[in-house]
Amino acid sequence: MTIRTSNGRTVTKPNLHVAIIGGGISGLSTAWYLQQAQYRGLGVTYTVLEASNRWGGKVLTEFVQDVAPEPFIIEGGPDSFLALQKPWALQLARELGLEDRLMSTNDDRRTIYVLVNGKLVPMPDGIYLIAPTRIMPFARTALFSPFGKLRMALDFILPKGNPTVDESLGNFIGRRMGREAVDKLAEPLMAGIYNADPYKLSIQATFPRFVEMEQKYGGLILGMLAGNKMRQEMTQEHPAESRKVGMFVTFYQGTEVIIGELVSQLTGDMRLNTAVTGIERIEDDSYDLMLDDGTVLNAHQVVMAVPAYTAAELLEPMTAGAARILNEIRYVDTGTITLAYEAGELNHPLDGFGVVIPISERRNINALTWTSTKFDHRAPEGYQLIRAFVGGSRTPEMVNKPDEEILQIVRNELHEIMDVTAEPIFHRIYRWPQSTPQYDVGHLERVEAIESRLPFGIFLTGSPYRGIGMPDCVKQGKQTADTIIEFMKAESPTL
Question: What whole-number distance in Å separates Cα of residue 131 and Cα of residue 265?
């Protein structure tokens, strides 16, 4: 294959070789879509380098056996992914032949509770993200004070903001719907996704759709009502698809199924326990990657699907400017603890998906998922699972406490919130230090500034940049692969 380098020289190479640093969902997705280019006859090969001893990053599923007749399925990271609004992970699952292994959440038991003054208050029907799509359930709910409801109703008449100026999610929701909406809806719901302070979280980087709604419809409530109507029409037009796939989906055997299937179908050079210690650009615009086993890997393109601070360390010798801005992307520690119980020992029916907890409640945990209600096939018959979330911007100190202290704190919280006093039959704690990037106001401008400073042939992809969920990471992996393939087509007269 003949390509032109950044300085205009023409060199001949047998194939374009891509080194992918990082074996999480972003790196593996990049490899998958590069592999599809191979099937189309394009001369591209790849090596995936993962420093740890397993693939998948934070996508981790554990099977706990020998406790009950059937295994418990425990998620250490994400327990599901958006399917219809962000279809990229679902599309990948179908490409991998996993259609028959998908399952949706139990939407007939979707009730979500909000902890208000220590009491569990059900979220009213029709709340979608942070605004009502049905008026009467909202009017009757005890979740909001009369003043809070009136303040949220001002969203119908308030003027639009400036769509060109990024602002925090907290400021945006507070401006449109008031502080009570931030405290009881936006903050706890968004904390569950981004583990972030809403008054630092960029609206443009996380929910640009809210800005679009404000501009198009004049407010969030009218925008949500219009969106609800569109979803109903889509359901009527495609009833079979709507029945088959809910808002959130996972796999019968846990989210790590997609990782295992990806790895089994990837045919490139796949290396675990292989860290990159340095990168050097050489004369023909390719790169030598120094590996921790003392060997050197040469690649024409390098994809960094690693945390921003790791990318910064590798890039600093080549581009101090990009490295400096990469280091401006903050990270927080997060963790989960899953507790298993015999169903008859619990004093609570677990009649919903779980509990979101406003920061104003001053709790040591951020949220609860009643896992065995939310999903089938997670606990054997006669047992139930509860998962608590800790860390993030609220309680970073929780992640670093000893296991027994975390367990005792969470059990105390379950006692006070749900009257759960039973001894769990087992528990699992997962810590994710420096794992969740914070999309502070101005995040997209920072990402663009980083990308403008990248050396020729270097790409960044994954959760630090344009979305942290599994679908976002798959999408970014595909976009990165597509960019590399388009480069090949543009630069090679032989293709």
Answer: 42
